[in-house]
Fold:
Amino acid sequence: MTALRVEQSSRLRRTRSAASFPCTTWPELRERQSALLKDWLRSDASERQWQTLLDAAGPDRLDLADELRDLLLHAGVLQTKEHFSRGQWLVERVRWSDVPALQQAAGLRTAAERENSRSAITAQLQMLAQDTPWLESAARHCLDARVGDNVRTARLELLHALHGWHQQQRFGLWRDFALHARGTTKSITLTEWKWLEAHVPLESLGIARFAPMLWLAGDLTLHTSHGDISVAAAGMCGLPMRLFTQSDLHAQNAPAHYWLIENRASFERQAAHAPERACLIWLPGRPSTSWCEAVQALLAIAPAPARISCDPDPAGVEIALTAGALWQQAGQTWTAFRMQREDWDRAPAIALTADDLQWLDRLQARDDLPRELQRLCADLRDTGRKAEQEAWL
Structure:
């Protein structure tokens, strides 16, 4: 073992270091030694109290801590500051040779790397808040909340997964989204789910906690072998979508027309005073296969034309087309309703994004775009903005 240099600042204090100090060459370490050194280097401080490092080692690794300290001391990776007490020299503090270089050698991120990562995450959150209105609350909370970098990174990952889920027009239960976001059905913690529920309209995005429901209001009575279901008597009710696949389901009175409303608050507001002989249906932001199948089954037993009300934006146009196709397949007519410029012209303005403009290009190139939706797309492009129907419906 190489001899050490000793610099004695007083009769009771000294500093010991190797002739090679400062050195950033990683000495050959055993697995347990490497693990402990990583724990020590998670702090960016160039000088640490030895007792603090012992506390990080814990009672089961005290001997390992002394052994590792001496190995690193002789390798020139650290120097020790010691004081004389009761007839012996005791280590008081440890000074590292080059913390960033040692962190990189240990496979840890340096302070500069973490700051760069933090800046990149902040920029991504700001972009999501600006370009994706339904993610704005969650993104702003990530930016403002006093949470650690790991939590902020994990939440950003979930927001990106939500954005992808939305773009792919997917629908499913919590476990389906967890599988989409992180590869396993139980990968999202309860704390994360509570945070998502507080800031994101999960159900509107097609992420249901329990069995999917078809929400109805207005004038409709269904007959089953177990009894009748009066939607009007309930005022508003959610029926399991599997109910509509039962062969014994019949409609006792078909409505004069259906009214599909995308925004959940607007749906509940209109349900309180539904028009006579109208059946209201909540149209989730991205209707799932099971929702479409339930509506098709309902149209088979109670056919009627439809009025479809969605947000006046490219996504709303796409959703209206998806729902309207079900009525076309059933041989029934449908029309966009309360989506005209005079409805939303005074609503709070939301600027169209670059993605919105590209989406409009694709929509306006379609041959099957109904006239009222052609006009809506033109108005959106003309004004450069979109809106949310909750403001007027």
Notes: DSSP finds 16 helices and 18 strands in the chain.
